[in-house]
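ok so I'm stuck.
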Amino acid sequence: MNVRPRVLTHRVPFVFTTAALSIAVVAFSSSITYAWSPSHTSATVSANGSIKQFDSVVDPNKASVEEYLSDGVQSQRARTARALAISDLEIQLAAATAQLASAHLDSVQVLKVAARYKGVHYIFGGTTPSGFDCSGYTQFVYNKVGVSLPRVAQAQYNFTTKITRSQAQPGDLVFFHGVSGVYHVGIYAGSNTIWHAPRTGKSVEKVKLWTTVVTYGRIPQGQINAATNKKIKRIQKALKVLRSAT
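replied:
not stuck anymore, here's the structure
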């Protein structure tokens, strides 16, 4: 009598220390992105001034050794991406801490944001990229770097610490005066130039100052410290979440 041999089949269980990991990462200065989409793991870590998601989802019930090994590679990639994100955030934290110690506004970031909206049309009363007036533009730009300015040009003038022309640095504000007070404001860009939203029919642009009848104002120290402290706390929170992930 022929006896049919019995075949034993075994499945190799797969244990992943973090079956579902979701981490919100906050970053600011750079624009570094790590991303992939393997069959069982997807992850994205972005550092570009906004909040992104870092997701790793691995099916714990694998049907073969091949899948087990594949998941091992993918989990290593996830760990590598997390390590890169932590490194990037640590660099940003060091920069923010140094900025707090030096107590200077991040003028590079101010001018970068200002330039981003080149060409936006002037609209009286405008405060968004759909259209800016002069003080709506300056308020919007500074808000992007964490500083809250008052709404209108005269109020922004009153808000700032007054400085001389020789003291002016990129990122300071430039005010234009008339009989009834301040009627226009722009962002000093260095070398006698400003970024501003000029008037109806024109668009946001960088131009040479056309008059010497202007005054200069600097964001108060307390406002710079408050914005930088807020930035440091966000980075520290993101680092804490990333470092606690296993």
